[in-house]
Write a structure and sequence with these properties.
single chain, 276 residues, alpha/beta, six-stranded mixed beta sheet, 9 helices, globular, disordered N terminus, lipoprotein, palmitate, signal, Lipoprotein, Lipoprotein_NlpA
């Protein structure tokens, strides 16, 4: 009887815990999925949250949109939070990155509208021109699959290396066929690339992290991505099935409005480029 009582107590406690966790999960999900509540959008601080906060402060009220902006400093949590319903949408990524993320993590995030491009750039504290990099120089590149491939393509497009045909969005240093300067590559988390500039000869940095670090891509980059036919535009994204949420459609319209275009052009001076 004593053992049975202990077992029954344990089962009841576990059941209560399970119910409690389920209730917490339901509360978490309901806030962002309730069409009558605010639309919570996950975003990188710069420039995504800045653009969203401009919309929130200047445009949302008139459009009847209750908007909340939640900042994240990494490239993983915004998608997982969108998938589990902690937030209703996110704004921080491009299509190749999302495709890779969905494929590897089994998430169901889809784009709604493309807003801007942040040109990827090569920066250095040691040289003023890319062709001034010395033989054997070390270049930091983002360590996630898509941004590393994008970084290598930038270097290839500017004649520093040659990639094998078909390397595409999965290129790694192993796909380099010609490396006349014998460059060495240091793979670091994307957010850490600006901080690595004192430790390496150059670094390829995503536009948002460059701006956050006080760099001016249009002025400071040794080489910079071209916006022409560029597949890396950043977009508003939601979990599949939520594309027609009235709040999402309102935000999509506001993010591609003339007011937002002017804000981006005036504030970022070519370091962030409107895609509409």
């Amino acid at each position: 009887m004593r053992n049975t009582a202990k077992l029954t107590t344990a089962v009841l406690a576990a059941s209560a815990l399970t119910l409690g966790l389920t209730a917490c999960g339901s509360d978490k999900d309901s806030g962002s999925l309730d069409a009558n509540g605010p639309l919570i959008v996950a975003a990188s601080p710069t420039p995504h949250a800045e653009i969203l906060n401009f919309v929130k402060d200047k445009l949302a009220k008139k459009a009847g949109l209750d908007l909340e902006v939640k900042e994240f400093t990494d490239y993983i949590a915004p998608n997982t939070a969108t998938e589990d319903g902690s937030v209703g949408a996110n704004y921080f990524q491009n299509q190749p990155y999302l495709d890779d993320f969905n494929n590897k993590r089994g998430t169901h995030i889809v784009p709604v509208v493309t807003v801007h491009l942040e040109p990827l750039g090569l920066y250095s504290h040691k040289v003023k021109k890319a062709d001034a990099l010395k033989s054997g120089a070390t270049v930091a590149v983002p360590n996630d699959a898509v941004n590393e491939a994008r970084a290598l393509k930038l270097l290839a497009d500017n004649g520093l290396i040659t990639l094998k045909d078909g390397a595409g969005n999965e290129a790694t240093p192993r796909d380099i066929t010609k490396n006349p300067k014998n460059l060495k590559f240091k793979e670091v988390e994307a957010a850490q690339t600006p901080r690595s500039l004192d430790d390496v000869d150059a670094a390829v940095v995503n536009g948002n992290y460059a701006i956050s670090a006080g760099l001016k891509p249009a002025k400071d980059a040794l080489v910079l991505e071209s916006p022409k036919d560029n597949p890396y535009g950043n977009f508003l994204a939601v979990k599949k099935g939520n594309e027609k949420d009235p709040r999402v459609t309102k935000l999509a319209k506001l993010l591609t409005s003339p007011e937002v275009k002017k804000f981006i052009e005036d504030k970022y001076q070519g370091s962030v480029i409107p895609s509409f």
